[in-house]
Design brief:
The complex is a heterodimer of chains A (520) and B (250). Chain A is built from 18 helices and no strands. Chain A is mainly alpha-helical and 520 residues long. The two termini of chain A are 40 Å apart. The longest helix of chain B is centred in the middle third of the chain and has 34 residues. The termini of chain B are far apart. Chain B has 250 residues and is α+β, with helices and mostly antiparallel strands. In chain B, 41% of the residues lie in helices and 22% in strands. The chains are: A mainly alpha (520), B alpha+beta (250). The interface between A and B is large, with 90 and 81 residues.
Chain lengths: 520, 250
């Protein structure tokens, strides 16, 4: 126990990140179920009063993004895989790494206090003032959660960027790195640049609410839009802090299971760098209806649509990886293939939202709710789940049950589609607003909500079976072969499963014609 | 170069398959809500073509290239420098072309949404937690937004407390309402009928209940109502005691 808590081994840090982020996912998932139950019918149902629903909504959003998606990818996957993939013994600053883990866990604990403190935060994960300043809810707990997890992210970003730049195995050039390493390199640059902006924004919120400043108080010369600009200046890039590593991991799963090197690797890397360049110029698409000047709404419609160019190049690369492959279908690949579908669905539904005029109807409806769940929530979550199956033999030295894995996959995949397709429809058709515990004006939407709630139950079942599979597999699963997926990447070819502290039995060097995708 | 030419053909097909955008509305006043419906259908078609193409290719390859034996390896192509550039730049230009096509049409509709027709009826909107109130030129106030059918309506909006958003689902338009700023939107109630406005920026406990009726009534009926509502409001506005019990005039 002690050696886990005080560990500086990147693999243990990674696994502790995974446990923390899955805990956040589980609690946030229960909140989702409660909300779906509340929306099942018109009128107050399972919630005792509307503010209780709003607290669930706050926790669900904040915990899923700050507690699960970002730490799941840049905490768990990055920690576990980066040093192994580049042939390093550990990260550049192992003790800093431990600190970032502790801060993350403290953030999770502060977030969980939501359920204990009186007047829990009810300000959504966005925390817009003046509401967040005026509310009786305890905005400070939101701010502290962001501070802790944000600080943890910044430390992690510095650590991994240094590790990737300086600690690659001798001989490993930039264009020989795993796609996942590149995706994290680009994603963490975004993280490092933009997280401080969020920290600043929420700190001003804290000052306004508790110290009597007036940054966002229009009556005293402040401006309510300042916060929204600062918040989305971080929070849109945050989408790519999730999207880029998710794409990187997806390439590892697809490439290994198709036994094909990523198609047009160079273009793929250029595409990722393109996203870094464009990501800070699109935040106004979250403010299309916020009374911003017309010229910037139109300007950022163009920049937002242009994201399809680097993403499109990455998608061509992803698809091309299947071409003339030798494709095998294990549970990880099931998740991988489903992500191709989720990427199309979630990505393409973003296009009407990018168009300012169409957004005047679609924004803040359940259409947008379904869109970002598919592309950010479900796509990234499925990549994380797939990667746990994929790296399970590496992490535990044991195998999961494939049949149970596939069964739970189908429950999850069917479940998310049953949940979110109806929300697309009622968003366009009836303008069903999001963040509503009740919708008395739209009785036509009731049957759609019934279907969506049923879907959520399927997902809950699938996730439960998945967790059972992981826990049982880690304790009792059959012993895994050294390289079950026949990967060519260093973590499989040069390290034991699970790797000991220090990772490799001997220092790793690679030749100039080596790539992590030379399948044999 | 085989791949390059294949891509060229795909690109040409994708571009010609997207039909030219027909401008929305034939009447004198372009109704943004109608323009929205037209543009939405075009965008949806565009998305179905792109999505369908990619989905079919993925499904076909996943089926065709499944491994026959557990030791098989893929034989994907190694690209020459020209192919690398081709497979990057050509798709990039196709996506960019589609982006500009969508942006141009989106901008056209945007201009319709943001250009208020000349003879529009102006109504002041004040939002507060958790209700809407409407004030007309002659001082008349109401908690139902009554408007004359067949005349565009422009709303000048502000909030007394937190950020709200004025959403008319039927007219496919919304704009945030916030303290310290005045924002606007306009809509075109062509025919008499009832609909509602609802709040779409999270504003606390009763956010989901923050809605109000919007009634489009024949112009004459509207004028009569406005005159009588204005007359009731006038004494209060002049600082005199209202003739009836406090509150009943509203």
């Amino acid at each position: 126990m002690k050696e886990w808590i005080f560990t500086t081994d990147h693999k243990r840090v990674g696994i502790l990140y995974l446990i923390g982020s899955m805990a956040a996912f589980a609690v946030a998932g229960i909140m989702a179920l409660l909300m779906r139950a509340e929306q099942f019918n018109i009128g107050l149902g399972v919630a005792s009063e509307p503010t209780q629903y709003n607290t669930w909504l706050y926790f669900h959003g904040a915990a899923m993004i700050l507690g699960f998606l970002i730490p799941g990818l840049t905490g768990f996957a990055a920690n576990y895989l980066i040093p192994l993939m580049i042939g390093a013994k550990d990260v550049a600053f192992p003790r800093l790494n431990a600190l970032s883990l502790w801060l993350f866990w403290m953030g999770i604990v502060v977030a969980l206090l939501t359920f204990v403190i009186p007047d829990a935060p009810d300000i959504m994960w966005t925390g817009y003032p003046p509401y967040s300043v005026k509310t009786a809810g305890n905005t400070a707990f939101y701010v502290f959660t962001v501070h802790l997890i944000g600080f943890s992210s910044i430390l992690g970003a510095v650590n991994f960027l240094t590790t990737i730049i300086y600690m690659r195995a001798p001989g490993m050039g930039w264009m020989q790195m795993n796609v996942f390493v590149w995706s994290l390199f680009t994603g963490l640059i975004v993280q490092l640049v933009f997280v401080p902006v969020l920290a600043a924004a929420v700190t001003l919120l804290l000052f306004d609410k508790y110290l009597g400043t007036h940054f966002f108080d229009a009556a005293a010369g402040g401006d309510v839009l300042l916060y929204q600009n600062l918040f989305w200046f971080y929070s849109h890039p945050a989408v790519y802090v999730i999207f880029l590593p998710a794409m990187g991991l997806l390439f590892e799963i697809i490439s290994t299971n198709a036994k094909n090197r990523p198609f047009n690797y160079n273009a793929l890397i250029v595409g990722m760098c393109g996203i870094v360049l464009i990501t800070g110029e699109v935040w106004v698409h979250h403010l299309y209806t916020s009374g911003m000047p017309d010229w910037i709404r139109i300007g950022q419609m163009v920049t937002t649509l242009m994201i399809s160019v680097p993403v499109g190049v990455m998608v061509i690369s992803l698809w091309g990886t299947l071409y003339k492959g030798a494709i095998t279908f294990n549970t990880a690949m099931y998740y991988g293939v489903s992500c191709l579908f989720l990427l199309l669905l979630g990505g393409l539904t973003g296009i009407p939202l990018a168009m300012t005029a169409l957004d005047l109807h679609l924004s803040e409806t359940s259409f947008i709710h379904a869109h970002f769940h598919f592309i950010m929530g479900i796509f990234a979550a499925f990549v994380v789940f797939g990667s746990v199956y994929f790296y399970f033999p590496k992490m535990t030295g044991r195998m999961c049950n494939e049949a149970l894995g596939k069964l739970s996959f189908w429950l999850n995949f069917i479940g998310v589609n049953v949940t979110f397709w109806p929300l697309f429809i009622i968003g366009v058709k009836y303008g069903m607003p999001r963040r509503y515990y009740d919708y008395a004006r739209i009785p036509e939407a009731v049957p759609y909500h019934h279907v969506a709630t049923f879907g959520a139950v399927l997902v809950a079942l699938g996730i439960t079976l998945m967790l059972v599979n992981w826990i049982y597999g880690a304790i009792k699963g059959p012993k895994a072969p050294e390289n079950p997926w026949r990967s060519a990447s260093l973590e499989w070819t040069h390290a034991a499963s699970p790797p000991p502290h220090g990772n490799f039995p001997a220092p790793v060097t690679v030749s100039s014609d080596w790539t992590p995708y030379n399948y044999k | 170069m085989r791949y390059v030419s294949a891509l060229r053909i795909l690109g040409a097909v994708a571009l010609t398959a997207v039909p030219a955008f027909a401008s929305g509305g034939g009447g004198e006043i372009a109704d943004p809500a109608h323009g929205w419906d037209v543009l939405w259908e075009h965008v949806l078609l565009d998305l179905f073509i792109i999505g369908g193409l990619f989905a079919v290719v993925a499904a076909y390859w996943l089926f065709k290239y499944r491994a026959d034996s557990p030791t098989e390896v893929g034989t994907g192509p190694t690209l020459t420098r020209a192919q690398m550039f081709g497979w990057t730049l050509i798709p990039a230009f196709i996506f960019m072309a589609d982006d500009f096509y969508l942006a141009a049409n989106g901008w056209t509709l945007w201009n319709t949404y943001r250009t208020v027709p000349k003879d529009a009826l102006e109504v002041k909107v004040t939002a507060s937690m958790w209700s809407w109130s409407f004030e007309y030129d002659n001082g008349a106030t109401s908690d139902v937004l009554k408007v004359p059918a067949g005349r565009p309506v422009v709303l000048r909006m502000t909030s007394e407390d937190v950020v709200h958003s004025f959403f008319l689902p039927k007219h496919r338009v919304k704009e945030d309402v916030m303290p310290g700023r005045v924002t606007y939107l306009w809509f075109y109630p062509k025919e008499a009928g009832k609909t509602y406005v609802t709040c779409t920026e999270f504003c606390g406990a009763q956010h989901a209940e923050m809605n109000a009726d919007v009634e489009a009534i024949p112009a004459e009926e509207f004028n009569t109502w406005l005159a009588s509502a204005g007359a009731k409001a006038a004494p209060a506005a002049a600082g005199e005691q209202p003739a009836t019990a406090p509150g009943s005039a509203l």
